Amino acid sequence: MDGLTLEQIAARLGGELVGDGQAVVQRLRPIATATASDITFLNRDKLRPLLAETAAGAVILPESLRGILPKSGNAIYTRDPYLYYAHLSQWFWQLGQPAFQPGRHHTAQIDPAARVSPDARIEAFAVIEAGAEIAQGVHIGAGCFVGRDAVIGPGCILHPRSSVGWGCRLGARCVLQSGAVIGSDGFGYARDASGAGVKIAQVGIAVLGDDVEVGANSTIDRGALDNTEIGVGVKIDNLVQIAHNVRIGAHTALAGCVGVSGSAEIGAYCFIGGGVGIAGHLSIADGVVIGGMSLVSRSVRQPGMYTGAFPLDTHANWERNAATVRQLHQLRDRIRHLEQYIESLKIEPST
């Protein structure tokens, strides 16, 4: 890749350019290891000492540091360097990709009753069943599966070995990383007289809004009766389980290993930390942040930061604290009795 001039970057992404606009940068790198052909960014005060030391050809800086320059003398000042970096990373990534070329690999199995845009690309050994709709600009990777009557919206990318079950729908520009499964059966069983599980047919579908990304080996179950619904712009990390009938609001992000039980409703613009467990049939308001490894066992009605993880400690201290936690209900009852006793000793003032 020939790289980009700083003038090109500023013209497309904005920001205030200071220094040599014709300087060429070929990649993004961390501030500590960047070289003269790299561009980097600084958005945390604790990294500010590195600004005087970095060998980067240019640095993306917050407006609050306007007038402070790296050794190269080249900087782009912007309100949010991290967001600027995100947009620039996409541009560099696109420059390094081969041009999109529509077509069908000869080993792909496409049912004649499927409707596939001539502007889509279907890679080797992909399977597309009858009634499926593949819109323009879709890229379906090797070994992917698209079930009957499923709909894949414009510009979606299905990385190798991802699958979309029958009837499920993806909006525009969705991304499924390798191994992602959309529309697997929800976990629904009744018990017969002997206690054996009797499967409940899962007849709903999974619906993803525009610009949803699903990480590697994550699963989104189809609904049991109603649909599982994932809102616009939701970002789901690797190894996440979304159960049947879950609803997630727009632009919420779920980090790795989150598990969401059936029929839970998560609001918009929430951030769910890694390893969080969310019980079924509860609601989480818009704008909620939940710390990693927390257990959400009740509805959260107000926005804000919530944490329910037990802090790491030495094993001996953990055992003592855990023993205390097990006795909290008894301690609570004793305190109530003491309060009642103290109250009974009070003498009413004479009138």
Q: Give Rg in angstroms.
A: 27 Å
Helix amount: 10-25%
Low-confidence stretches: none
Total number of distinct structural domains = 3
Secondary-structure map:
Blueprint: E1 4-5, H1 6-13, E2 16-18, E3 24-25, E4 27-28, E5 38-41, E6 58-62, E7 75-78, H2 81-95, E8 103-104, E9 109-110, E10 115-116, E11 121-122, E12 127-128, E13 133-134, E14 139-140, E15 145-146, E16 151-152, E17 157-158, E18 163-164, E19 169-170, E20 175-176, E21 181-184, E22 189-191, E23 197-199, E24 206-208, E25 213-214, E26 219-221, E27 228-230, E28 235-236, E29 241-242, E30 247-248, E31 253-254, E32 259-260, E33 265-266, E34 271-272, E35 277-278, E36 283-284, E37 288-290, E38 295-296, E39 304-306, H3 315-326, H4 328-345
Summarize the structure.
This protein has four helices and 39 strands.
Structure description:
- By secondary structure, the protein is an alpha/beta fold.
- The protein folds into three domains: 92 residues, 3-Layer(aba) Sandwich (Udp-n-acetylmuramoylalanyl-d-glutamate--2,6- Diaminopimelate Ligase, Chain: A, domain 1); 204 residues, UDP N-Acetylglucosamine Acyltransferase, domain 1; 30 residues, no CATH class.
- It is built from four helices and 39 strands.
- It has an eleven-stranded parallel β-sheet, with no helix packed on it. The chain has a ten-stranded parallel β-sheet with strand order 9-12-15-18-21-26-29-32-35-38, with no helix packed on it.
- A hairpin with a 5-residue loop joins strand 22 and strand 23.
- The longest helix is centred in the C-terminal third of the chain and has 18 residues.
- The chain is flat, with a radius of gyration of 27 Å.
- The relative contact order is 0.06.
- The mean pLDDT is 95.
